[in-house]
Amino acid sequence: MKKKQAPFINREISWLSFNERVLQEAADKTTPLLERLKFLGIFSNNRDEFYRVRVATVKRLTKLGRKAIQMYGDDPHELLVKLQRKVIEQQNLFESIYQDLLAELAQNDVFIVNEKQLTSTQRMYVSEYFNTELVPNLFPIMIDETKAFPYMKDEASYLYLKLQSPSKTQKFRYALVEIPTGSVSRFVILPKHGNKNYIILADDVIRYNTDQIFEVFGYKTVEAYNVKLTRDAELEIDNDLSKSMMEKISKSVKARKQGLPVRFVYDAAMPDDMLKYIMKKLGMSKKDNAIPGGRYHNFKDFIRFPELKDNNLVYHHPMPLLHKDLDGRASTTLKAIKTKDVLLHYPYHTYNHIIDLLREASIDPVVASIKITLYRLANSSKIANSLINAIKNGKKVTVLVELQARFDEENNIYWANKLQEEGARVIFGVPGLKVHSKLCLITTIESGKEFHYGHIGTGNFNEKTSRIYTDFSLLTANKEITSDLAKIFEFYENNFKVQAFKHLVVAPFFMREQFTQLVNKEIKNAKSGIPSSIILKMNSLVDKGMIEKLYEANNAGVKIKLLIRGACSLVTGVEGWSENIEAYSIVDKYLEHARVFIFHNGGDEKIFISSADWMSRNLDNRSEVAVPIYSPEIRKQLKDIIAIQLSGNTKLRILDAKQENQYRKPKPGEKKIRVQDEVYNYLKKEKEASHKPHKQKQTVQS
């Protein structure tokens, strides 16, 4: 009898379901109004990257014929059709939500107007703004029948114009005008009228003034529509051994800008003759991911929509907390870590603790060296500047910069060069591996002996994203962990030497095997009648091998709970496969980015935080690290936080086989639990409780 195939949801289909959860936030009336606009921007930005990376990959697979199905598991041709159908469905929902938001904004005295809705005063303002701010940044391109179609940038939005020609022999001409949002704001704030706020998009300022651009040639604008092209963003790394990794990546980033088109988005109101003309010029057909959209594209700019009022239209984030053990009572961060392990949880805790750690290490006389992995740095990185300061203070600094951090390559190249110039030893990744681990090792010489302090985290060393990504950082002086950490840096410096790790779980060498063994232990315990359970929190769960292992655990009776923010290929609630598995997703004001793994292990729980999702690329093709949590205090804290997240009933979605993204709602009489607010309150109470004796003592003395 043929074995039944395990149920899986295609990764790309599941990812679109995740982005629909983002769209739900834009529709959710409990979300502040301007934040809902920003969620439209996040949805749009996510979808752009989806096309540039995932759809581009599927398109490349179509060239492999039957081999593609064997490699990928799905027919890429059929999948592209399904993806396009789903994207168009979501686009229609997007446009409907946007129109609803415009009406709600108007009710709150915020009006987004177009060029046809301007008053005489506003028309004068728009004309002046156009001439002073926009004209110097506009570079219109006439489309010439006798020449190649002009290059359209990836990610840019254009106005595609039909012009009335002064020539009797040529009735119409066409032109493209890039909307210059890289140099000016997409949003032009018009003069207020009483309490009413008016905004016009730069697109419409240009539309209003297009005749000014072309009138010198005698052309008049007949029609103008927004269009956008998305290109394949895959880097093609050449194998020229004479070139450095830096040269190869730099060359590939430049080549990416010329990537093949993977999506063409156009205003659905565009007449057929204009659409056919530009599609022909681009060498595309409607089946080539031509997506009808609304009047505007590049909604990612709405992430930076101006905050016009200090009221309930935006989130008011609470001040990040000082960690209870790093509040300044200890003389230095290093001394505090030496006393006990510290777990930071962003954005609830301030990221300044990490900046303080590196700044202190840069000037502390006992510090001999700092080693760190950098994957995505902020543009004006305090992390990088702290490392430069350490070099100037005579510390040895070794930095592994991952040049292949997608869409951050140029920024990483800049900082790699800067650090090299200042005297750091810079390692450009590991051949054949992308280094995704979040590690730092500080070495001191104390009483003539070497001592190590370590950082192992789930998120990047990036103070900017730490304000919106939820992540964990473990700071430890535990010799067992820091000894393993030193071995990992030895591997980064000498790729031929792979050592055994006693405590850290390291990919690609041991992680899949060790997590498989932990699942097997739960299976064995369940079959023996011993309590068993698995709780996994991560961004994506798509690796077939690990999902099949979880199905096996389900059939043995292991209770499994999943918190998956993004793509989840595991199908819950299927009899004989997953009736013991629950899966949820949190999408709220912060981006859930932490990875936590908890195995019951017969009562002696194994608890880890990690940089790795359960995806084939993380387990098999990247350098990733999971660290076991040994501190009883931190183990309790992590379990409490995960319990809060699993108890959510406000922004928690149920992941089921139909991918309906239903909210889990409070039962009658049940308290509303908004996970991210509850976690902040939990950490705040923990801090307050730890300081009560300290405060009482001060009161007595005074």
User: Helical segment tally?
Assistant: 18
- The top-level CATH class of the largest domain is Alpha Beta
Radius of gyration: 28 Å
CATH superfamily (homologous) name of the largest domain: Polyphosphate kinase middle domain
Largest sheet: 10 strands, mixed
**Helix/strand class:** alpha/beta
Under CATH, the topology of the largest domain can be stated as polyphosphate kinase like
Mean pLDDT: 90
What's the architecture of the largest domain, going by CATH? 2-Layer Sandwich
Number of domains: 3
Uncertain segments = 237-242, 694-702
Summarize the topology.
Layout: H1 11-27, H2 33-61, H3 66-72, H4 76-107, E1 110-113, H5 120-134, E2 141-143, E3 157-164, E4 172-178, E5 187-193, E6 196-201, H6 202-214, E7 220-231, H7 245-256, E8 261-267, H8 272-282, E9 290-293, H9 333-339, E10 342-346, H10 352-363, E11 367-374, H11 382-392, E12 396-401, H12 409-422, E13 425-427, E14 434-435, E15 439-446, E16 449-457, E17 469-476, H13 479-493, E18 505-507, H14 511-527, E19 533-538, H15 544-556, E20 559-564, E21 581-586, E22 591-592, E23 595-599, E24 606-610, H16 616-620, E25 622-628, H17 632-646, E26 652-654, E27 662-663, H18 675-701
Parallel strand pairs: 1-6, 8-9, 11-12, 12-13, 14-25, 17-22, 19-20, 20-21
Antiparallel strand pairs: 2-4, 3-4, 3-7, 5-6, 7-8, 10-17, 11-15, 15-16, 16-17, 18-25, 19-23, 21-26, 23-24, 24-25, 26-27
Helix pairs in contact: 1-2, 1-4, 2-4, 5-6, 10-11, 14-15, 17-18
